[in-house]
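hey m, so remember when u said the tokens were messed up on ur end? i reran from scratch. heres the input so u can diff it against urs
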Amino acid sequence: MPCVPVPLVPQMPALPALPAAATGDLIRQMTEMTFSVPFVVNHRLTRMALAGPNPSARDRQEFMTMGLEKVTAFQQSWLAMMWAGAGISQDLMAASLGWWLAPWTAAPASRAMEVMHHAPMKVASAGLKPVSRRAGANARRLSRSVPKP
């Protein structure tokens, strides 16, 4: 009688597709930034070039706002990614606790794989949200003004 090996770990199902909401948010944010960032950079560089070595009070205010916005968006982005990572960590902990409670099933491992499968998309979307929001707001605000010499 031939000896047939019995797998110690049950077969895991295939990973599901990424949720449309998560991919849609990330694509929307990246598309918005694709169109708004070049416009904002062009507007501000033109304004800097026209201001020359002695910028007006309005120009100095815009340049200071530009620098503060970058720092604020960077901090908000890192904080959002940290919170998204904390949520993912909690989901993984819940999946590992499920493994301890029911080691004979593949459901907890499948859940952990699903969490890890969606993790990069969640973190990237959370990190781009403040930057995308700020870039879009700047493009709308700056489109109403024309750089003057």
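this time it looks ok to me. The CA atoms of residues 30 and 72 lie 19 Å apart. if urs says something different then somethings off w ur setup not the seq
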